C-alpha cells in the first residue's frame, strides 16, 4: 500500500487545464449514468463547531475508487489551525484492496471544488465574462478566481465578506496577481456590474437576493453543503432562467433546493426545471439562450469529483 503526503500531492496536481479535463470527464460520466454514487455520510460535532463528511463513487471503467473523509472544524483558526482537513483512501475496483492513502489534508477537495465552479461558468456564463463578484474571502473564494481564469479572461473582481479585514486581505492577494479588485460594504453594490457571482461562505441565512442580480449574470453557489447552510434566497432561484446543480438529491438535502423541500412530503415542490451539471456537460445542453438570461448553479460536492481527482493524483504520483 502506498502512502502519499500533501507536499508530494501538491507537486503532482495543480489547478490547471489537465485537472479541469479530469473533473469535466467525471461529471460527464455521472451525467451518462456511468457512476455509482451513494448519499453523503455526514456527522456534526456541535460542541466543537465541527462536521465530518464521507463521500465516495465508482466510475465505470476506473481501476480504482476513492473514499474521502473530510472534516471542517470552524473554530480552529482561533487556535492557529486550519479549518479544513481530510484524506482520500484509494481501493482497487477489481479486488477491493487498499491501493493507497492520499493524506492531502483537504488539498484535493479544494482543487476539485474550484474546478467544478470553473465548469459551471464554462457552460453557463456568457462567453465574454470578465468581471466576477465573490461573496466570501476564504480559501475557496480565492481558488474560485484561479479556476475561473482557466475558462474566462477575468480582469476585475468585486468582493464582499462579513469581516472587512478579511475582504481587504483577500483583495490584496488578488491584486498581486494582476487583477483589479474592489472591496464593497454591501452585497448589492458588490454585484452591480458582475458577469459572474460566486458565493463561497458558510452562511446559514441567504445572503444573495434576486434584487442583487444584474441582467445576464451567472451565479455559482458553493457554500451550502449541509442541511443548516443557505446562501441563496428563494427569489434567486425562481428568478433564474436556468437552474443547475451537481446532483438534485444532494441539492434537496444539503444544497439550495432544500428551500423547496417540505418535510414529510414524498415529492418536492420545486417551481422550475432542474438540470444536473453532468448532463449539461455530457449533452452540451444550451441553457444560456441569450446574453440577458440569468443562470444559477448549486454545487454541493460529489463523490465522483473525489474519485476523479484522486485517481488522477495517484496516476501522476506513480508516473
How do you describe this structure in short?
The chain has ten helices and 15 strands. It has 319 residues and is α/β, with parallel strands linked by helices. Helix 2 packs across helix 9 and helix 3 crosses helix 10.
What does this structure look like?
With 319 residues, the protein is an alpha/beta fold. Helix 2 (17-31) crosses helix 3 (107-124), helix 2 (17-31) crosses helix 9 (277-283) and helix 3 crosses helix 4 (139-148). The mean pLDDT is 95. It is globular, with a radius of gyration of 19 Å. The protein is built from ten helices and 15 strands. The protein folds into two domains: 2-108 and 304-318, ornithine cyclodeaminase, domain 1, CATH 3.30.1780.10; 117-301, NAD(P)-binding Rossmann-like Domain (Rossmann fold, 3-Layer(aba) Sandwich), CATH 3.40.50.
Question: What keyword list fits this structure?
Answer:
319 residues, alpha/beta, Rossmann fold, eight-stranded parallel β-sheet, seven-stranded mixed β-sheet, 15 strands, globular
Straight-line distance between termini: 16 Å
Count of alpha and pi helical runs:
10
Largest β-sheet summary = 8 strands, parallel
* Number of strand segments: 15
Tell me the structural class. alpha/beta
- Sequence of secondary-structure elements: EHHEEEEEEHEHEHEHEEHEHEHEH
Give the % helix: 25-40%
Please tell me the CATH architecture of the largest domain by its name.
Answer: 3-Layer(aba) Sandwich
The H-level CATH homologous superfamily of the largest domain, spelled out, is: NAD(P)-binding Rossmann-like Domain
Report the top-level CATH class of the largest domain. Answer: Alpha Beta
Strand order of the largest sheet: 10-9-8-11-12-15-13-14
What overall form do the CA principal axes indicate? globular
Low-confidence runs: none
Average pLDDT score: 95
- In CATH, the topology of the largest domain is named Rossmann fold
Rounded to an integer in angstroms, the radius of gyration calculated over CA atoms is 19 Å
The proportion of strand residues reads 15-25%
Number of domains: 2
Amino acid at each position: 500500500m502506498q502512502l502519499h503526503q500533501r507536499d508530494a500531492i501538491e507537486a503532482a496536481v495543480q489547478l490547471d487545464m489537465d485537472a479541469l479535463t479530469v473533473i469535466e470527464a467525471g461529471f460527464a460520466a455521472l451525467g451518462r449514468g456511468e457512476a455509482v454514487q451513494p448519499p453523503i455520510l455526514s456527522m456534526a460535532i456541535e460542541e466543537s463547531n465541527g462536521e465530518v463528511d464521507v463521500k465516495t463513487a465508482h466510475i465505470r471503467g476506473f481501476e480504482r475508487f476513492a473514499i474521502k473523509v473530510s472534516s471542517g472544524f470552524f473554530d480552529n483558526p482561533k487556535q492557529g489551525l486550519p479549518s479544513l482537513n481530510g484524506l482520500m483512501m484509494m481501493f482497487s475496483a477489481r479486488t477491493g484492496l487498499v491501493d493507497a492513502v492520499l493524506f492531502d489534508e483537504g488539498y484535493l477537495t479544494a482543487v476539485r471544488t474550484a474546478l467544478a465552479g470553473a465548469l459551471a461558468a464554462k457552460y453557463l456564463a456568457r462567453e465574454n465574462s470578465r468581471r466576477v463578484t465573490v461573496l466570501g474571502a476564504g480559501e475557496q473564494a480565492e481558488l474560485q478566481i484561479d479556476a475561473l481564469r482557466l475558462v474566462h479572461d477575468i480582469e476585475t473582481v468585486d468582493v464582499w465578506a462579513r469581516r472587512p479585514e478579511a475582504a481587504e486581505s483577500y483583495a490584496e492577494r488578488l491584486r498581486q496577481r494582476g487583477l483589479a479588485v474592489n472591496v464593497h460594504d454591501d452585497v448589492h453594490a458588490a454585484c452591480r456590474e458582475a458577469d459572474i457571482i460566486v458565493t463561497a461562505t458558510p452562511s446559514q441565512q441567504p445572503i444573495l437576493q434576486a434584487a442583487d442580480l444584474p441582467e445576464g449574470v451567472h451565479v455559482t453557489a458553493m457554500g451550502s453543503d449541509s442541511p443548516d447552510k443557505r446562501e441563496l434566497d428563494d427569489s434567486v432561484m425562481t428568478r433564474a432562467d436556468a437552474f443547475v446543480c451537481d446532483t438534485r438529491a444532494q441539492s434537496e438535502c444539503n444544497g439550495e433546493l432544500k428551500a423547496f423541500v417540505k418535510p414529510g412530503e414524498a415529492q418536492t415542490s420545486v417551481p422550475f426545471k432542474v438540470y444536473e451539471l453532468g448532463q449539461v456537460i455530457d449533452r452540451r445542453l444550451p441553457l444560456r439562450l441569450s446574453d440577458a438570461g440569468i443562470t444559477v448553479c448549486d454545487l454541493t460536492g460529489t463523490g465522483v469529483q473525489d474519485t476523479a481527482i484522486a485517481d488522477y493524483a495517484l496516476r501522476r504520483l506513480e508516473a
